Amino acid sequence: MQFEFTAYARSLQGTGASRRLRRAGKTPGIVYGGAAAPQNIEIDHNALYHALKNEAFHASILTMKLEGKAERVLLRDVQMHPYRLEVQHIDFQRVDENQKIHMRVPLHFVKEDVSPAVKQSGAVVSHILTELDVSCLPKDLPEFISVDLSELTLGQPLHVRQLKLPDGVSAVTHRNEDPVVVSANLPRAAVETEAAAEAAPAAAAPAEAAKPAKPAKPAKG
Question: How is residue 138 annotated by DSSP?
Fold first, then answer.
């Protein structure tokens, strides 16, 4: 999905100017990076607020129209009001087509319901990661990464290195770590029931041993 939005150059700066902008239904922001100098901008708040509800707006290369020119940018930071549904400030970074970018891309999980973990074992699947930090050229940036769970089994978590990433895309991890993406475990109630069932015979054995022996019947004679 291609997102396009319009921004306007902003000359006035400072807390007072930003407050007046917000009262007028605008959001102050900045675009930086590349060969050009950082540029203060303003954007229509309502249009921006609705765009932010779309997952792709956060993980795609966007087209920003500014002063009659179209620039390719990435969303880098959003500052929200502490308790009002109001965007306080927004940052964008210009894209250089020849330089790799780091971006957090959403993970979309598929075929969970047909996995052995769910279908055969009745496990609960936990999505430990819902997005992945990747490195790639702008042309290779995926809108999302599909994670196939059709072979997920009980007690065998799926790690980042097992993900099938698009060509040209690599995962960014720290210190050669291999984080867990998804795990599948039995529900707590099932585990407790199983543990109780295993403990029952063991508890019964000492009880049987503790019963007093029956007295022998006196011999007749």
Answer: G
Instruction: Label residue 13 left, alpha or beta by phi (over 0 means left) and psi (-120 to 50 means alpha).
Output: beta
pLDDT tens digits for 57-107?
999 999 999 988 999 999 999 999 999 999 999 999 999 999 999 999 999
28 neighbors 14 (Cβ within 8 angstroms)? no
Residues 89-107, buried b or exposed e (16+ Cβ, 10 A)?
ebbbbbbeeeeebebebeb
The rounded radius of gyration (Å) of the Cα atoms in the chain is 29
Q: Spell out a b/e string for 8-32, using b for 16 or more CB atoms within 10 Å of the CB, else e.
A: eebeeeeeeebeebbeeebbbbbbe
Cα 69 from Cα 61, distance rounded (Å): 16
